[in-house]
Design a protein that fits this description.
224 residues; mainly beta; Lipocalin; 48% strand; 2 helices
Length: 224
C-alpha cells in the first residue's frame, strides 16, 4: 500500500513545485542608481492621473500571503516622437492598503504596521512619518519582443536608491499614455525594509517574511 502511494505523492510534489516556479514573478534587474533620462525641449508632456493609477503589491510568508495597493501622489512623463523617453512619479506611502483582510479582522493593524504608525515599530517596514514618499525616475527604455518595453529607473524608498528594470506594456493614443508592467519582484532588504527577513536576522524559524515583494504597476497619464 505504502509503495503504491509513494509514486502518487512524488508526482503531486513535483507538480506543485513546477506549478509554483511557473507562477513566480520574475525578479527585476537591480543595480546601482543611474543618471535620469532627459528629453528634448520639444517633448510632449503627460501628467499622471492619480485617480486611475495604482501600484499593486503582494508579500509572502510561510503561512500565506497578503496583498494590497499603494496610490501615486503625482507624476510627469515626456515623449519624443510618441515614444516614452523620461519621467518621474511619486508614491504616497501613507496610502498603503491591505486588500485581503476585512475591516476589524486585522486589516487596520497590518496597515498600521506596514506604515510604521505603531509606537516602537516605526522602522519595521516603511516608516511613512519619516519617509512619506517613494519615487521612481526613468533612466532608460529598451524595445523587447511582442511589443513590450524594458523600463529602467531609479527606485527610492526610505532614503535608499537603486536602479531596477522590468517589462512593461506602453500604450500611447496621443492624448493618454498607459504604462502597465508585468508582475515582478524586488528584494525589499536593498531598501532597508528588513523586518522579519531571515537573511538579516537569525533564529526566526518559520516566523520569517520573504525578502521578495511582488509589484505590478498600472499608470495612466494625460497629455498636459
Amino acid at each position: 500500500m505504502i509503495k503504491n502511494l509513494f509514486p502518487i505523492a512524488l508526482s503531486l510534489v513535483l507538480t506543485f513545485s513546477i506549478s509554483s516556479c511557473k507562477n513566480k514573478a520574475e525578479e527585476a534587474n537591480t543595480s546601482d542608481a543611474e543618471a535620469a533620462a532627459v528629453s528634448e525641449s520639444t517633448s510632449e508632456k503627460f501628467t499622471v492621473n492619480v485617480a486611475e493609477s495604482a501600484i499593486e503589491w503582494k508579500g509572502f510568508k510561510p503561512t500565506g500571503t497578503h496583498n494590497g495597493t499603494i496610490n501615486l501622489d503625482n507624476g510627469v512623463f515626456k515623449t519624443d516622437d510618441g515614444k516614452l523617453q523620461s519621467g518621474t512619479f511619486l508614491i504616497d506611502m501613507s496610502s498603503i492598503t491591505v486588500n485581503d483582510l476585512e475591516a476589524g479582522d486585522g486589516k487596520e493593524d497590518l496597515e498600521a504596521h506596514l506604515k510604521g504608525t505603531v509606537e516602537g515599530k516605526e522602522n519595521h517596514f516603511f516608516d511613512v512619518t519619516k519617509f512619506p514618499s517613494a519615487a521612481f525616475e526613468i533612466t532608460g527604455t529598451e524595445s523587447l519582443a511582442a511589443g513590450k518595453t524594458r523600463l529602467s529607473g531609479n527606485l527610492s524608498i526610505k532614503g535608499q536608491k537603486h536602479n531596477i528594470s522590468f517589462p512593461v506594456n506602453i500604450t500611447n493614443n496621443g492624448d493618454q499614455i498607459t504604462i502597465e508592467s508585468d508582475s515582478f519582484t524586488i528584494d525589499r532588504t536593498k531598501w532597508n525594509v528588513n523586518y522579519g527577513s531571515k537573511s538579516i536576522f537569525e533564529d526566526l524559524g518559520d516566523k520569517f517574511i520573504n525578502d521578495d515583494i511582488e509589484i505590478k504597476i498600472n499608470i495612466k497619464a494625460k497629455k498636459a
